[in-house]
Amino acid sequence: MRKNVAEFILLAVAALATMAHPALAQPAAPGNPPKQAGKSPLKVFILAGQSNMQGQGVVTMKDKEGNEKPGTLVSMLKDPAKAPLLKHWVTANGDWAEKRDDVWVYDVSEFGSRHGALAFGYGWNLGSREWFGPELQFGHLLGNHFDNQVLIIKTAWGGRDLYKDFRPPRSGGAVGPFYTQMLATVNMVLGDPKEQFPGYAGGGCQLAGFVWYHGWNDFCSPKIGVPEYEKNLVNLITDLRRDLKAPKLLVVIGEFTGPWGADCKEPAALAIRKAQKDAAARPEFAGTVKFVETHDFVRPEKDSPTGEGYHEFKNGETYFLIGDALGNAMKELLPK
User: Fold this and answer.
1) Residue 107 has what pLDDT?
2) Distance between CA atoms of residues 7 and 13, nearest Å
3) What is the pLDDT of residue 115?
4) Relative to the CA of 217, which of 162, 164, 208, 271 has its CA 20 to 30 Å away?
5) Does domain 2-29+39-333 have CATH number 3.40.50.1110?
6) How far apart are CA 227 and CA 268, in angstroms?
7) How far apart are CA 74 and CA 95, in angstroms?
8) pTM of this prediction?
9) Which of 87, 236, 101 is nearest to 161 (CA)?
């Protein structure tokens, strides 16, 4: 396999021309914890949502003939215009960088939990190193931004809506079980960070930001989920700030994408997007909440690994660029 991939790597830009096929990285193994690098306090970011936030991006996937499918990270290395975007995840000898020790991840979903240094492998398929989500490039950007150690707590469960599953307290009715579980996860990890990350050297934790990337299941409920979305999203932000005792918690809202790019004409999808944008524009959120357009990152099915439009066709380039946009938006909100 390394020989075949090495042959097409030669087609990449000259700076990457000597690369062999990068071996897939995996989260840090138990007993080999990452070391804390940089200053205290630990800067903490919560990434939340449903299966899209879990991470449906594909690192590598073959067709029946054994050829690399389009829209994977490996296929990006064949494109001279795209290969440089990945250079920080590729070592000098052409392998994928194993991990980034100064950024940690605690990831929980319906499949279980895992934790370790930032690396490939925190996508939806628990235990697989061939999937990733927005955390990959988001973590890279925020790791570069701070001298401090960075921790990402990713709480994402597939097929969960906002109007019921993540329903915040002030929306009325039963509080969503995944709102409750999200809070419990954050409080558990921050209550004893050394338990999950033995390299933590103390100095305290600071909640620095929250990222919401979500929308499909409410889109599928046009009579309830869609008309309530803006109200519920505003309440989610307000209640999280109260319950986490972080009244000025910075928030980035990633635009609902699915299979639709900028030419989306699906009324319910457009309504969700508008609700997200309008929620971010509320006067009470001025300077602390930012809406990020992501529709330009959606690639056609023919240029993607699969036909799952609700997962952006599992396009690795899409997920890489979404993570990049979310990370840059958070950097813009952070104090200069």
Assistant:
1) 97
2) 13
3) 94
4) 208
5) yes
6) 9
7) 11
8) 0.89
9) 236
